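Hey, can you fold this one?
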Amino acid sequence: MSHDQFPLGPPPHPLGDPLVRREGRQKVTGTARYAAEHTPPGCAYAWPVPATVARGRITELDIGGALALPGVIAVLTHENAPRLASTPDRTLALLQEDRVPHRGWYVALAVADTLEAARDAAEAVHVAYATEPHDVRVTADHPELYVPETVNGDFPAVRERGDFDAAFAAAPVRVDAAYTVPPLHNHPMEPHAATAQWANGHLTVYDASQGATKVREDLAALFKLGTDEITVISEHVGGGFGSKGTPRPQVVLAAMAARHTGRPVKLALPRRQMPAVVGHRAPTLQRVRIGAGTDGVITALAHDCVTHTSTIAEFVEQAAVPARIMYTSPHSRTTHRVAALDVPSPSWMRAPGEAPGMYALESAVDELAALLDIDPVELRIRNEPDTEPDSGRPFSSRHLVDCLREGAERFGWLPRDPRPGVHRHGDLLLGTGVAAATYPVYIGATEAEAHAAADGGYLIRVNATDIGTGARTVLAQVAAAVLGVPEDRVRVDIGSSDLPPAMLAGGSAGTASWGWAVHKACTALLARLRDHAGPLPAEGITVTEDTRLETAQRSPYSRHAFGAVFAEVQADLRTGEVRVRRLLGQYAAGRILNSRTARSQFIGGMTMGLGMALMEGSALDPAFGDFTARDLAAYHVPACADVPVVEAHWLDEEDPHLNPMGSKGIGEIGIVGTAAALGNAVRHATGARLRDLPLTPDKVLAALAELAACRS
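Sure. Predicted structure:
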């Protein structure tokens, strides 16, 4: 291929086009292989044994009966398992000691020739414990509450501006309300699974992970290996929602069992065990206080959050952080307190912090609108800040007001009768609600390789992870836009730690991080090609670039995506059942790189927010210390019938302060605000303000009965 075949004029821009995801056919035909679908020759199967006490120590382990069963190869315990190096992530210090920090903690691992034999062996393991008193229930006045130094995202746990107490006391209109969000579970469609194999000292693992680079680094540290001695492959991942963001027990246990037995080992965690070992959204007890003038302008704002963490790993949901950036608030206090209990370790779940925090904040703003008899859309517009209230930094772009106005127009918000509990259709009470949404811009250092082949094709190599978002397709679009070629001339290799290292797929940072590195590598490659004379060499030309310097620089701007969610619901007077009639989200999230996959992300997040509002929820049994809803029979998630009409729209937002593509993350903002919009709609429909998620029929019926009693 000669250099004059490379484009020199303005390139085509497939960015934004609704291209079909490249791996779609593989997935629907079953040819895409997930972590548990790799079966090397001689592969054995593993099944874990969870602790049946909430706190204590192992006093006896009898594995003789398990080993006597046909096909059983080994049973790993803290007495015979490979020794691991110490790790700051103590959730991975598996089978290393006799301590049981919470119910469900793994105390043994059975390995056998078949899955059935491994399961039988696990059930035959006898474990005796010396139990200790336990505590799994967080309360607002728990005696062990403390203020952490930072919360998730490395935010300060406490921030104060002005004099909140004085301003709140002086405000003519005040809201003081408490809201609760129960423990929530990620429950991706693909369970956490890994297939591990050692060969000539090299460890190869197929893992259900949101970031193979991070998994390789942690495995190298645990097993005292160089990163070049490990390959982690996460080519296809069936969802994660944060629970696969860091290594989880399956990959460590599979590698340990493979080393111990000398055979490849496959481990897929049983779904009922997942809530105890792969993270969860911790419960939050939140108090929001708003002081405002009679014109609705906020003068004082406080958001206080109480939550739990485990005794082995501190993770604090940053639920009060969104209140620091959302609205005008000259006097503000935002705090987090946490108790370390005998519970499974919480971790990331889609929009950690923003999802529960904005539920409370946006519900309180709706309560303020009702007190003042001001339209909830108008009230939010009146409190739009010029700069970020917390830091004073300018926003790189902030089009929340535009989202509110355009979303209201699309939804048909006005004219709206604000009176609650008066709009009926037979036995159905009807209502509408609105809430704002926000999510920060995160971008992580990534390295990418761009290769021009002699036949005119291109290859992009980067260890991105596609967790169902269409990463391959969007990265091909980014490369094609820079190179000025049709996207079908670009191949993309992702999902292996042998590729250039990349940011994990989390924090809505994936595409922005990977795309920036791909953009930079392709820009450098294009410059090389334009300087090249004559045909390309047979081996082609390769350029590698990274974004370490760019991403290490702190932006002078406050960078966030924003949105507005509108909801219409019906509440059945007889059964208390709440059904969603329609949902509409309007977003400002930078440049949309693929309208088809973006719409799926927005709608998926909104659907998850619907589940959070109306049906999803778990609890920790105070007597036994385990989660009461541990599978999809007890933990209800939305089905298609629960979402009859859902729309996602976005503004054409230009923001030059992000990355070369001008894109913001979109995977999480859809869930933010949706639960509050639905809760506000339920209040409009019924006249009852429910502050304890989820809004299940029993709670609705009780509230309706209380209202009826008050009227009589």
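Residues 140 and 306 are 6 Å apart (CA to CA). Let me know if you want another pass with a different chain boundary.
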